[in-house]
Amino acid sequence: MATVIVPAHNEATVIRQCLDSLVNQAGLDTLIVACNGCTDDTALLVRTHYPQAICLDIATPSKVNALNEAEQYITSWPVFYIDADTRLSPDAIQVISTAMQDGKTLLAAPEPVIDTRLSSWSVRQFYRVWLQLPYIRDGVVATCSYVISQAGHQRFTRFPSVINDDGFVRCQFERGERRNIPGAQIFISAPRNLSSLIKIKTRARLGNQQLAAAKLCTCAEKKPYSRILREKLFSREAVPVLIYLAITLVIRVRAAWQYRNVQTYQWEKDQTSRTTAAGE
């Protein structure tokens, strides 16, 4: 049996699709929705339509604070941390929980299925390359979710005040201790335009810079991006790779500029993907 935590900040347009994918799953013990700083009717929707869920209505708009508050209600392990604008495939909770019983997998995630059908051409090219990178494909990255075993959670006591909670969690584990689980999927809607893509990727890079500066990562990992991308430049993937590199350069510049004022950072959120659920 597993506990599921869904942090939610103004997610009224998408949260029902997320929760509908969770409530009837085998292996679900406790469902906690940690509404935080909401100015819409997210909490009302949860309480009205999902009485089986524990609905927290937290005044502070902070994802990591919401996670810390929600963890007080954990009843079973592993714990699934699922973003409110995603959906899990049927039986994903059971499949992942069973896979983690080997005791070797301390951090897991479903395999990401990113829907780019409504995205612009440049966004599609970016994801075309990004999703082929080995580190992204199987390293508990790009899933908007993660699953921690009870033994794994002993690596830290509380979520620190950081931008990138999933990055913080991931870098507490060695490569052999974490993996994506075949047979379990999470459906994610990609940003529809380039501006929104740059926003969320800048936030991720900024969060990683913050983690590195604070020395919060215990397990560093080298990513052979340069070699892989150089090889693709001399293949049929040349145009998508050039687009990817150009977008990545913009992200790096924006993140470096924003890092100078990281203490007053205002969370950048993609609103374009929140009108429909990701397609299976």
TrEMBL record:
- Glycosyltransferase 2-like domain location is 3-130
- GO CC annotations, alphabetized: plasma membrane
Highest taxon of the source? Bacteria
Gene3D superfamilies to which the protein is assigned, alphabetical = Spore Coat Polysaccharide Biosynthesis Protein SpsA, Chain A (3.90.550.10)
Record-linked SUPFAM superfamilies = Nucleotide-diphospho-sugar transferases
Give the UniProt keywords, A-Z: Cell membrane, Glycosyltransferase, Membrane, Transferase
Q: What is this protein called?
A: Glycosyl transferase family 2
User: Major location, coarse class?
Assistant: membrane
Give any GO molecular function from the UniProt entry.
Answer: glycosyltransferase activity
* Natural source organism: Thiothrix lacustris
Q: Where in the cell is it found?
A: Cell membrane
